[in-house]
Write a structure and sequence with these properties.
The complex is a heterodimer. Chain A is mainly α. Chain A has one domain. Chain A contains 12 helices and no strands. The model of chain A has no long low-confidence stretch (mean pLDDT 89). Chain B is α/β, with parallel strands linked by helices. Chain B has one domain: Rossmann fold (3-Layer(aba) Sandwich), CATH 3.40.50. Chain B is built from 10 helices and 10 strands. In chain B, helix 3 crosses helix 4 and helix 4 crosses helix 5. The C terminus of chain B is likely disordered. Classes of the chains: A mainly alpha, B alpha/beta. At the A-B interface, helix 1 and helix 4 of A face helix 2 and helix 3 of B. Chain A: It is found in: Cell membrane. Chain A: It comes from Roseicella frigidaeris. Chain A: This is ABC transporter permease. Chain A: Keywords: Cell membrane, Membrane, Transmembrane, Transmembrane helix. Chain A: InterPro entries: ABC-2_transporter_component, ABC2_TM.
């Protein structure tokens, strides 16, 4: 475990040593705030909750998280440091997990910085803070799922643009799988796939959290989603690390 | 006791191309092996397999008895490796970077500080310890890579072109350092510089087209009335034509 945390610590420090962290956090906060207050009609709804905020955060992550993961392995390849990292005495899964944890913690920091919105709603009204906490947990899990997926894609290619575009596309597939457009289409043509699509959908799972329901099945879904793609990441890395 | 480095019928194929072809050798404590060959001969590929970065297509290597394929973490613990081009994380400071590799190697607290200080002293990096690596010159970057390989005082050192990019004084210092460490370690260095082989190596292996063509002390190579350079040219160029026709 020591090596995993050492890798995570180095990665996290690297985010803040480059403009990546500041650009990410500022854009995330500005966009989250702007979307919540304008399109989300935060004040006009007359309800003391963070429903509009939680509607937009997963869509922001859809674009911002792949921007974070695109450099994860691609950058190590470009610099040649992958050869250094993987010849240090640590198992491959420790490097994979360490990088993932750093990125996840970073997303957690960005989320934590949205706390003023939560304070605002508490000043203006009397919201159910349990529901809000569940919503934040949901956001963090969505970020984790996108991160795991994006990291696995990053291991596939040396090219950061390819890694970004592929990761956005794949994240979108999982985000949109449960949307009415997709499920209705599938119900008409391929009813078998409709259920599978709904079962795999990230946004369907996330909805429960925004209502304050932390279901065991949803937690298992996110845990296995993240675990699966971290495993894919390790396998891909093993086969393509020298390319 | 078995040799510190044992390479056994190591082979690496990329598609139809065989980069390293059935290479076997051992390196004992106290030996400094110069690994020579033209560009693309398979030097770096052999070293990468030995360091556990690339899995071999066939054969294996052992470092202090630990198989690099079956027990990679144990093998890497005994190894100090300088990859080709001495890659480092550019945004980190020299001290931060060495601290990172030291922590991965399990050092903490005072022991870690001592190791980092010792590695910086050996490679004369104390003056730039708080500078980000990206601001350093090529020679300093190479020494940071070297410091990282020496940090844990490993019994086995594998250095891919350790003096590339250094000025003559720095080259001299690195060679002195290698010579000083030689009695307790098994060291493999790859190089293009033939004088370096004569200066520090107790044994030279020349590889061409993935095969070992010569394995002898540099003095023996020179004794046949030719300079090392002539030997190198005749071995790596002379055999090229007939081999290629046969293939």
């Amino acid at each position: 475990m020591g090596a995993t945390l050492t890798v995570a610590r180095r990665e996290l420090a690297a985010y803040f040593a480059t403009p990546v962290a500041y650009v990410f956090i500022v854009i995330f906060l500005v966009m989250a705030g702007a979307l919540t207050f304008t399109m989300g009609n935060f004040f006009g709804r007359g309800q003391a909750d963070l429903q509009p905020f939680f509607t937009f955060v997963p869509w922001l992550f859809l674009f911002l998280v792949p921007a974070l993961t695109m450099r994860l392995w691609a950058e190590e390849r470009r610099l040649g440091t992958i050869e250094l990292l993987l010849t240090l005495p640590l198992a491959q899964w420790q490097a994979v997990l360490g990088k993932f944890l750093a990125a996840w913690l970073f997303c957690g920091i960005a989320l934590a910085l949205t706390v003023p919105i939560w304070i605002t709603v508490n000043v203006l009204g009397d919201p159910d803070n349990g529901v809000i906490l569940a919503g934040y947990l949901g956001c963090l899990l969505v970020a984790g799922a996108y991160l795991a997926l994006g990291a696995a894609v990053s291991a596939l290619t040396k090219n950061q643009v390819v890694a970004f575009v592929l990761a956005v596309a794949l994240c979108f597939v999982f985000a949109a799988a449960g949307s009415p457009v997709v499920t209705e289409f599938l119900t008409q043509r391929l009813p078998v796939l409709a259920d599978i699509a709904r079962g795999l959908s990230i946004s369907d799972r996330f909805t429960g959290f925004t209502r304050g329901v932390v279901g065991a099945r949803d937690l298992v879904y996110f845990a296995s989603f993240i675990g699966f793609f971290l495993f894919v990441n390790a396998v891909v890395l093993d086969h393509r690390k020298a390319d | 006791m078995a040799a510190l480095i044992e390479i056994e019928r190591l082979t690496k194929r990329f598609g139809g191309f065989t980069a390293v072809d059935d290479v076997s050798f051992t390196v004992d404590r106290g030996e400094v092996l110069g690994f020579l060959g033209p560009n693309g001969a398979g030097k770096s590929t052999t070293m990468r397999m030995l360091a556990g970065f690339m899995p071999p297509s066939a054969g294996t290597a052992r470092i202090c008895g630990a198989d690099v394929v079956a027990q990679p973490v144990a093998a890497k613990r005994h190894l100090g490796f300088l990859p080709e081009g001495a890659p480092t994380y550019p945004e980190m400071t020299v001290e931060g970077f060495l601290g990172f590799t030291g922590r991965i190697r399990g050092f903490r607290g005072g022991a870690l500080r001592d190791r980092v200080a010792q590695a910086m002293r050996l490679t004369q990096l104390e003056g730039v310890r708080l500078q980000p690596i990206e601001t350093l010159s090529k020679g300093f970057k190479r020494r940071v890579g070297l410091a990282q390989a020496l940090l844990h005082d490993p019994p086995v050192l594998v250095l891919d072109e350790p003096t590339d990019g250094l000025d003559p004084n720095q080259k001299h210092e690195v060679r002195e350092l290698i010579r000083r460490m030689a009695p307790e370690k098994a060291i493999v260095i790859s190089t293009h510089i033939l004088e370096e082989v004569a200066a520090v190596c107790s044994r030279a292996i020349i590889i061409a087209r993935g095969r070992v063509v010569v394995d002898a002390p540099p003095s023996v190579l020179e004794r046949e009335g030719q300079s090392l350079e002539e030997v190198f040219r005749s071995l790596t160029l002379g055999e090229a034509a007939p081999r290629r026709e046969a293939a």
